[in-house]
Amino acid sequence: MASRIGDIVVDCADPARAAxxxxxxxxxxxxxxxxTGVAIAGHPxxxxxxxxxxxxxxxxxxxxxxxxxxxxxxxxxxxxxxxxLGATRVDVGQGERxxxxxxxxxxxxxxxxxxxxxxxxxxxxxx
Length: 127
What we know:
The protein has helices at residues 15-26, 75-85, and strands at 7-12, 29-34, 37-41, 48-53, 66-68, 88-89, 100-103, 109-112. By secondary structure, the protein is α/β, with parallel strands linked by helices.
């Protein structure tokens, strides 16, 4: 193997708000915080997510986005849970699909897939 993804970097206007949302959405924990942003992570084998402060406007949909899969409920129930956490429904021209497009509280799009996956293994070791 040549490389692995170490971090996934997401620019956002409010890293603290985004971190709160994504930690609740994914069951992740905050690893670090400074004036540039917030790092969150789940299981040590998964990439960390770096939520970095950016004042640049977001003019179009994200070129890279996360597809998330429910672990313990169906897609409709997961969409409702994420909406209650602060996500919003968005239309990026997807039409009728098997996935649902939402945006986090900072406007970054992600998809909620219909496929269920197993939860990440425990325990979280704090990286």
